[in-house]
Amino acid sequence: MAVDLAQLNEEYRYGFHDPESYIYKSGKGLSRSVVEAISAHKGEPEWMRRFRLRAYDAFERKPMPRGFWGGELRHYPLDFDDIHYYVRPTERQGRTWEEVPDQIKTTFERLGVPQAERQFLAGVGAQYESEVVYHSLREEWTRQGVIFLDTDSAVREYPDLVREYFGTVVPPADNKFAALNSAVWSGGSFVYVPAGVQVEIPLQAYFRINAANMGQFERALIIAEEGSFVHYVEGCTAPIYTTDSLHSAVVEIIVKRGARVRYSTIQNWSGNVYNLVTKRAVAYADATMEWVDGNLGSKVTMKYPSVYMLEPGARAEILSIAFAGRGQYQDAGGKVIHAAPHTTSSVVSKSISKAGGRSSFRGQLKVQAGATGARANVRCDALLLDEQSRSDTYPLIEVDEQQVTIGHEAVVSKVGEEQLFYLMSRGLGEQEATALIVNGFIEPIVKELPMEYAVELNRLIELQMEGSLG
Amino acid sequence: MSEVLQIRGLRVAVEGKEILKGVDLEVRPGQVHAIMGPNGSGKSTLAHTLMGHPRYQVLSGSVSFGDRDLLPLSTDERARLGLFLAFQYPSEIPGVTVASFLRRAYMAVKQREVSAVEFFRVLQQKMRHLQMPMSMAERYLNEGFSGGEKKRNEVLQMAILEPKIAVLDETDSGLDIDALKVVAEGVNALRGPELGVLIITHYQRILHYIQPDVVSVLMEGRVVQTGGRDLAEKLEEAGYDWIREGKA
What we know:
Helix content of chain A is 24%, strand content 35%.
């Protein structure tokens, strides 16, 4: 993907922020009454209020996670009392673009968000702060019965549907951050695709943190009924702040018989953000779940999209890229659980470490007894750009069934002197040559992204290569 | 202005070991100069040094191109001056297509913006000329290429970047006769009054197809003999021992 370097020689464009003008903002810190207040403020049904409070109890009980959630987190202290758990920017939702506040439009414009209403973007859910303020959905989808809403509205408008699935894939007590999210969640997307419906154009949503010390706890729930298809795309860029921010989302996806869901993410948090996300999908018979996950920026990212293949013929594909620059720790990977016969999974992970950044691949591959004929392949490639950077691989493989085919491959490489010499002998400067090698390295994942995301990702990588993002 | 590549008293070490021990050589525009020599004579060291590979350390001597001293320049600066090296073992760059790489290189060497449309026209014309299928432009650079494809791809790059001095490092190695012919035809098509070519080769086979104006023999880090085309033919008949004996 050719991206112009000259255009990229600009300062980090995303490092501005708008003056805060919130209508409601909870105090810092978390307590039972804060959780109660959030629920009351949203006017939620009783079952959701109780769900939040149960989750809060679990959060209080749970220790800081280790193992998959990285024992390393103790090196990156996180003060739960120094975070705003709820901020609501505007009184109500904009249904049309005209209703969206000008300040927010300006923000999107400066972020270079693609023109939301244009032909390619049929529906846009833009989360500004903790709340989705703008959502539109094409009429044809409404006719098809597709629901694409922010999760808060979905709780109000489709309570039975939400209640049936909410918290079933990621239970509140799953881990401390899932519990935290379940207690204080706000915003996020809800997608429902009826049986047999193919949503041809990707659903897209932009997220953005815009308040110092503000946590973001969006909650996504996607239900793909039998034989349906949807591609959900989430992109993040965050402004730079000096104090720590916590982003802890939960994404739950249910892929029913013969359906296919692809969930693509590009995240580029500013260097102070803790990005601790629980993403999980369940796939039923002959269903396919695909995660495409790109992680740049942030101080610490811990994210392992997972797929539970519950019935025969289910398939999982996880592609992830992580870029760790100075002072950053990217702990990413994927989990696949084969719980039925003839299930197939593929995990491909690529990481780039630069200027002392650290990236690790953490993968779990589990094949349960009885999952005969399961096939699994895990591949992780790490590219180190200098001697100070670090890359680790923590594969966890548990296979309780004999009749399976398992492949695992891990390769760590450095940008080669010969490769650089070759490219430079054709007139490319050292930095451009390095950026080209890096872009080539991630190409297998980039080509899976919609065009404008691919361009954005390459641009972000080149900015990282110039060190202008710190 | 005629731009001559002038090498004088060039001594080069690799990892502390002296390989070139005082090489004098000249390549003039419009001229094809063949450097022949047995294995280990320093042929590839010469090629890499001319292009500025960081692992080759110049001990003394000079390399100039026109009125420019090449030795202080980085590899990419030399390329932008019009120097080109066709590699014996081109690197594989996974994930980067031939087309996107070449467009960047083209813009770097021409030092101007070139639209994708404009570049595609140039690429299409050159590829047709070299009888390369356009599908090759969308493949990742040298990844999974056969020996012949790699060499042809090097000649394609040369055709597109239009250098003033082209150094062909063992371009004939690993090629069957048909591939060799195609590559040689590609090089011949680029010959002209502006282009100086330095062909580095062990065997004189390629010189049947690319006729040299000057032939120099490199042995043990020095040019031991220089002559016309007949020198190459004599070497084919008598082998390098003939020169060794002559030296003795």
